[in-house]
Structure formats: C-alpha cells, structure tokens
Amino acid sequence: PSWEKRVTRSAQRRSSHGLTVLVTGAAGFVGTHVSIALKRRGDGVLGLDNFNHYYEPQLKRDRQKLLERNGVFVVEGDINDSSLLKKLFDVVAFSHIMHLAAQAGVRYAMQNPGSYVHSNIAGFVNILEVCKSVNPQPAIVWASSSSVYGLNSKVPFSEKDRTDQPASLYAATKKAGEEIAHTYNHIYGLSITGLRFFTVYGPWGRPDMAYFFFTKDILKGKPITIFEAPDHGSVARDFTYIDDVVKGCVAALDTAKKSTGSGGKKGGPAQLRIFNLGNTSPVPVSELVNILEKLLKVKAKKKVLPMPRNGDVKFTHANISLAHKELRYKPETDLETGLKKFVRWYLSYYPGSGKKSSW
Ligand code: NAD
C-alpha cells in the first residue's frame, strides 16, 4: 500500500469515541508499549521515530516489527522536520500527541551535548510550533523526567518541589521542556500535560539502563560496577514497571482537555499539568542486583566504587498523590515481579544468553 494508505490505516480509530494519537519516539521503549496499548483498545495510532543509533538499532527495528504486527505504522523521520509533521497532520486530524521522542540517558550528554539540544529542546519546540499551527490543535502529553528534581534532597519528590538544580544536561533539557510547555500553554492556549517518569523498566527496555546491562554482564560473567554515594549511603531508584507507566500515559491522554487556541483569552485557561509517574518505593541498586542474581541464578562479580559526578543523582522517590487523584494512577508491580517479566523477555530475545548459569 502507498505511504498515505499506511498512515491513514494505522491512524484509523475503531470507534467514534476513540482517540487519534501521533506517538513520537514510537520505536523507543515506552513508545512501543504505549502505542500497542492504545491500538489494542481501539484508538488510531501513528508512530514517528528517527531510529537513531544511540543504542542497539536492531532492537528498535524489532520493536517496529512488533508494532506493525499490532497494526501500528511507524513513519521514519525526525521531530525537527516541520514539513514532514505538517504532511502527517494534512493526512490525519490527530486529537492527541504522545510526545516521547528524546535523547535519553544522562552520561551520553558528556560526549554528545548537541544531541540533547536537537531532540529535547529544538525538537520539542518544533512539535509545539506545528501543534499551534494546525486546526484542530491536538492535546499534547509529553515525557518529562524525575531528573528535573536534580540535587533536591527533599524526598519524596512532589510536583511543587524545587527543580532549579539539574544534575546533568539531560535533566536541564527536560526542565527546559517544562518551561517551554508553560510558555506555549500561556501564549497559544495549547493543552499540555508533562509526565515525570521515574526509572521505567521492563520487556523491550533500554540497553543503556542499569537493570538491562547488569543482566547482560551478569550472564556473561563480566564484573558489574555498583556506585556508592559520597556519604557511603546506597544509590536508590524508584523503579517503575512499564505497564504501570503505560496506564498513567493512557489516563493522561484520556483526561487531556482540548486546546483552547486562545492563550486562555476565551473559554478559560488551557490545561497545563505536570505529574509524577513513579512507584513510591525506592530500591537500592545493591538490592536490584540481589534480585537479578536470584532470577538469573548467577552470582554477580561486583565492584563497588564511589559515585562519579557524571550526572546521576543519589536517590529518587516519587510522591504520586496528584497522579493518583487526577489520573487514578496506581502502580501495581513490585520490582521483583517486574524484573521477572523483564528477565523472561531478555532470555527469549537473546537466546543462548542464559546458558552459563553458575549458581
Ligand atoms: P528511548 O530512547 O527508548 O525512546 C526514544 C525514541 O525516540 C527512540 O526510539 C529514538 O530513536 C527516538 N528519537 C530520539 N530523538 C528523535 C528525534 N529527534 N526525532 C524522532 N525520533 C527521535 O527512550 P524511552 O525510555 O522510551 O523514553 C521515552 C521518553 O521518556 C523520553 O522522552 C525519555 O527522556 C523519557 N523518560 C524515560 C525514562 C525511562 O526510565 N525510560 C525516565 C524518564 C524520562
């Protein structure tokens, strides 16, 4: 079928109540899961991704195959390409954008700062520029990050806490995204919801994240490095299972109000919301490793080193009462249950990787 046919077929809703969603970063970890969840319940979904080589290109291609099997077409292109975006809006009247495309990862920023500016700042501005210029204007839900809390040490983090001390360029670009969202909401009346994700993990996850490369290295018998905070306290993360995050994303789309297009001059102010989507139970990285050892039946070779100043923060912990109240968000998966599902996926996706069991 022609490009237009594939685009319209993918974006076709099954019922008149359904949403029509453009998912950017659709071949990414969260994008794949959100796109499939929306498509399965009958929404129209079109993906957009530039398939960059930040991590395993094959993994993104395999997620694309999974998306296609589920009826989701992924257009290959960059969020900075205005003419491509306008062309997509000419073909489909999207009611919502789920904007997940970004340069993720905190350490990569040291060698590749431009990539963060390109995707997380310029790309986001471009998305908003296109959204403001089309009619009807879609409601926007986008991924911010728990990293905006930066060096703030007051836990648990709640949405009103200070976010003026980002610890990495990645965090700074996510914080900049929030400022940019406020501006476009105020001036152009765009309806915008930002979701601060907390260390999302699960099947089809990201190979640059600790739970993923620990699994790989433990199975290979390679030593893993566990960082200890300067006060010798444990580094901990509020690990959040992908299915819980997906439910939060879908609820954010479902409760997003239409853009007013008037900067709040007519018909009341447009909606601007920011929510934490975490798990409310931080787990020390040492405990993450213990669980992986148990599930993989392999003892890890551990090195403990002081935490370098490379952009990581010591601790993350979400207060999710706002998301619970407004989105009915309620994470249900504890780390061991979620990791069990991740490990099962990992061993089937990389057959042969689990053979060297040495328990
Ligand atoms: P991911 O890297 O797997 O997905 C992002 C996708 O966006 C990739 O497939 C990439 O190819 C695509 N992309 C990047 N730049 C692009 C561009 N300029 N144009 C088009 N496509 C582009 O990451 P993820 O873990 O799925 O994260 C999704 C979103 O959630 C990101 O915005 C990320 O910053 C945010 N986030 C993720 C986590 C987490 O733990 N996974 C935590 C906090 C925030």
From TrEMBL:
Reaction(s) catalysed (UniProt annotation): UDP-alpha-D-glucuronate = UDP-alpha-D-galacturonate
Localisation: Golgi apparatus, Golgi stack membrane
GO molecular function: UDP-glucuronate 4-epimerase activity
Entry keywords, A to Z: Isomerase, Membrane, NAD, Transmembrane, Transmembrane helix
Top-rank taxon: Eukaryota
Known EC number: 5.1.3.6
The keyword NAD is annotated on this UniProt entry: yes
Ranges where the NAD-dependent epimerase/dehydratase domain occurs: 21-257
Membrane topology: Multi-pass membrane protein
Keyword Nucleotidyltransferase: no
Enzymatic class: isomerase
Subunit structure and binding partners: Homodimer.
Name recorded for this polypeptide: UDP-glucuronate 4-epimerase
Gene symbol of the encoding locus: LOC110753684
